[in-house]
Amino acid sequence: MEVHIKETYEQMSIDAARKVADVLNTKPNAVLGLATGSTPQGMYQELVRLHREEGLDFSQVTTFNLDEYVGVPPSHPQSYHYFMHENLFKHINVPPQNVYVPSGTTDNYAAFCAWYEQRIDDCGGIDLQVLGIGSDGHIAFNEPGSSLGSRTRLKTLAKQTIDDNARFFENREDVPIYSITMGVGTILEAEEIILLINGENKAEAAKHAIEGAVCSQYTASALQMHPEVTAYLDTAAAGKLEMTEYYNWIQKMKPGAPRL
Ligand code: PGA
Question: How many domains does the chain have?
Fold first, then answer.
């Protein structure tokens, strides 16, 4: 895993957006895997700026979101459909028919999950997957104990996730208990992955994800098995990492490295 530590959230968001832009500039019809939550908001803002001011083109892009709350319709302000529309889709030129977000209101979850996996395959697989991380070390809603080979399915949210996400709802009781989420196995099939981590409350999860043992109790640790992962952290999230000097040394030496 390549680890980039930046002084501020804004800087890490700009770097992550640049990575997405590089992929789109190389492959204009790329398939992006997208995440919700407060973490990627800065990166989405920068992508919107790149679209408006520098012509970054999404006209051939396809997107698949990681997850959605069960029982929450797309029009609900806390649905991930709504989040994506407000934070990204309505500001860029991605064709609406190329946008996929798991349905939280289907009447057949098993069939929907199988269809979602098939759609990803039919579109050629995900070229670049964007991920945040939960304070319990989850990626998407793959809570502690999720199989590292899991596929898109229904998941019960962990209490810690419900507590973390209660800030977005009026009452804690309003936070959905179930989600539909891509599995760890689904995520690991992406060609390339970027993991965004910011804030002191994520420092413990970051340590387990980047330097801990690979285990289902911190599903983000499974990313260590993937050959093309770049993690972007701010200094607060990197606070508990032990190898910070080493990561910074690698980045510093990079310009002199032999060309591939
Ligand atoms: P957050 O959520 O970005 O709102 O902290 C991340 C996650 O739960 O994956």
Answer: 1
